[in-house]
Amino acid sequence: MDILQGLILGIVQGLTEFLPVSSSGHLELFQHIFGIKEGAATFDVAVHLATLIAVIAVFWKDIIEIIKRPFSKITLLILVGTAPTLAIALALKKTVENLLSTGSTLGIEFIITGLALWFAESIKTKNKEEKETTYVDALIIGIAQGIAIMPAISRSGLTISSALFRGLKREFAAKYSFLLSIPIILAAAADTTLDIVKHKTSTSIEFFPMIVGMVAAAISGYIAVKFMIKMISKGNLRVFSYYVFVLGGLIILDQLFFHIFFTLKF
């Protein structure tokens, strides 16, 4: 991996982690395009932690309040939402690793993300704020986040869509989705790090490309979070569905006919 590739992958991670288009799917796509295998897992951990900095930078006041009031309603909602995500992630870990290694389901999963975003805009929200949001709401949103462990199904897309489906106010749906990402990003980074150590996976990667990627991911992630908060409040999620529909369709065409980047090996 060179510095330019690190920069591009960092920007891709930062933007797509919080835009509802799937960061893991885009990273996998670009790593296939660049032919990157050596040190990919280490780089993924680094840029995911960098995007965590972006969330903290935007929601630092809320995070401080959560730390001060560990038994507040929002804290419990995050815990309830995180539990099913972790359970699903553990259950599907091997399956997801196999799918990531081939990229065989990326096209279909991008299209699933697009359908979720499309139908989310058809839902009339009930303007639930933190006080009105129930633990059943949090559980359902957490299950949706767990399903988004699949390579090209967007975490933010599914959590925001399911939050709107449950009647959460658009602004609170965005806030809850981003706060819910914090423990999951940390857990995913820790799990990947343990796998690298346990299986002695190659961590060979140039220092400067990784640093450039992390800085790019943090900056672009911050921009993406601020942008998404405005986009969700205005109800423009369908523009992202058009994008992932086209991207998913192009990947499927490549898988079926051209075989430039992907095959259909399972």
Question: Could you characterize what this model shows?
Answer:
- The structure is a single chain.
- 77% of the residues lie in helices and 0% in strands.
- It contains eleven helices and no strands.
- The radius of gyration is 18 Å and the shape is globular.
- The mean pLDDT is 89.
The stretches of 5 or more residues where confidence is low (pLDDT under 50) are none
Largest sheet: none
Strand percentage, roughly?
under 5%
Count up the helices.
Answer: 11
- Fraction in helix: over 70%
Classification by helices and strands: mainly alpha
What spatial form do the alpha-carbon principal axes imply?
globular
SS elements, strand count: 0
- Average per-residue pLDDT, rounded, comes to 89
Distance between the termini: 27 Å
Order of helices and strands: HHHHHHHHHHH
The tally of structural domains comes to: 1
Identify the notable features of this structure and list them briefly.
single chain, 266 residues, mainly alpha, globular
Q: What is this entry, summarized?
A:
With 266 residues, this protein is mainly alpha-helical.
Topology:
Blueprint: H1 3-18, H2 23-34, H3 40-58, H4 60-68, H5 73-102, H6 106-120, H7 135-147, H8 155-165, H9 170-199, H10 207-234, H11 238-258
Helix pairs in contact: 1-2, 1-3, 1-10, 3-9, 3-10, 5-7, 5-9, 6-8, 6-11, 7-8, 8-9, 9-10
